Each structure stands twice: as C-alpha cells, then as structure tokens.
Amino acid sequence: GAVVSQHPSRVICKSGTSVKIECRSLDFQATTMFWYRQFPKQSLMLMATSNEGSKATYEQGVEKDKFLINHASLTLSTLTVTSAHPEDSSFYICSAKSRASINEAFFGQGTRLTVV
Amino acid sequence: QKEVEQNSGPLSVPEGAIASLNCTYSDRGSQSFFWYRQYSGKSPELIMSIYSNGDKEDGRFTAQLNKASQYVSLLIRDSQPSDSATYLCAVISSGSARQLTFGSGTQLTVLP
Q1: A65-115 pLDDT, tens per residue?
Q2: Contact state of B49 with A109 under an 8 Å Cβ cutoff
Q3: What's the count of helices (H) and strands (E) in chain B, helices before strands?
Q4: Using an 8 Å Cβ cutoff, are A7 and A97 in contact?
Q5: Cβ <8 Å between B45 and A107
Q6: Percentages helix, strand, coil for chain A, rounded to the nearest 5?
Q7: Which residues of A touch B34 (CB under 8 A)?
C-alpha cells in the first residue's frame, strides 16, 4: 500500500512557541491531504482539507490563523501550530489521497504534541 | 449534520469468540464505508472497506452494509488478544469534498 510519512512522531514545546509537522507521501502524488486532531478517548476530528497548490479548507471552529497549512507540492503538506498553548496538546494525524484513489486515504503515523 | 455513531463500549469478548461492532450513519447519500483499527498511541489502519449492500469477507473479518437501515457492522471471528484495540467506523459523505467522517470508536478487549 501507499506510504505516508509524518514527522516528528513526538514533540514537546513551550507555550507560545510554534511547531511544524510534516506529512509526506513517499510513493504517490497526494492531490488531497487531510489533517485531523484526536484528543484522548475521542475520535478523529477533521481540522482541514488541502489540495495541492490551493488554500486549505478549514472545518468550522478551527482557527486558520493558528493552524497554518501549506500544501506546496504533491508530496508534502505541513501543519504549523502557531503560538501553541497547553490546550493544543493532542495527537495530530495527516492522511493523503491521490487522484487515483477515489475512496481510500492513507494515514501518517501521527504526531503527539505536548505543550508545556 | 452528518454523523457517524458507534457504541463506545468497552466491549469484552473471550479469545476465540465473535466480536460484533456496530455503526449507524445519518447521511443517506453516503456511498463508501470503512472500518479502521487503532492501537493506543498509533494512527488508524484500514481493515475493511465496503461500498454495496451485503457482506464482504476478508479473512477473519466480515463487514456488513445495509444502506436502507443506514447501518454498517464489523464481525471479527476467532477473536485474538492482538485484536484488542479501538475500532473506528468511517463514512465518506455525499458532499464534494469526499472526506472521511469518523465515529467515536468502540474499544474492544479480547480476553485470553
């Protein structure tokens, strides 16, 4: 199956700093990438959808100025959590789809963010 | 609002038994349905996808879809302790974004 690599797997940062998470499709071109957030004991909540070369579409309640998404190439999307606060501590997961995979999306390994 | 609902569990079954996981969805126009398994601290991994009414079998797993009842289920036969995980039902909505909407997940424990 297709491989999506997400980095870093864990990050601890100080409150007020910014953190960048990378999501790469290793063996296919990801025309669409999705960013999810998962709090403990809860399901995945979609934050935003990004298509290569265009601005991300954010879900209701997700601050686009706080969670900056860049999908500049067909193999890379980044999520930057700006001015992080402890309540942003969560498990962030990306997934990617190619033009050929109409239905199936492939998930990255996830990033555990802890803001102290 | 488009929703996917699952019994949160936890569900416990003895080793070798059949585990039955259920899911309902509200968007009648949904066409694609998925079951993911998620181990603690890991990202979801796809187990089954199903697109048409009826049963679909893959090894010990059987997915069942009933679009009229807006119901999808996952059966795990001969359950193993390694099957212990949270199982997420996911649906692709009928909107143009074709994004996955996840249920809250059912925690399954298979007791040795």
Answers
A1: 999 999 888 899 999 999 999 999 999 999 998 877 767 788 999 999 999
A2: no
A3: 0, 11
A4: no
A5: yes
A6: 5, 50, 45
A7: 104
DSSP 8-state class, residue B15: T
pLDDT 10s digits, A14-46:
999 999 999 999 988 888 899 999 998 888 999
The total of other beta-carbon atoms located within 10 Å of residue A30's CB is 30
Contact B19, B37 (CB under 8 A): no
Q: Which residues of B touch A55 (CB under 8 A)?
A: none
Q: Alpha-carbon distance A104 to A2, whole Å?
A: 10
Candidates B43, B87, B94, partner chain A, best to mutate (most A CBs within 10 A)? B43
How far does CA B24 lie from the centroid of its chain? 10
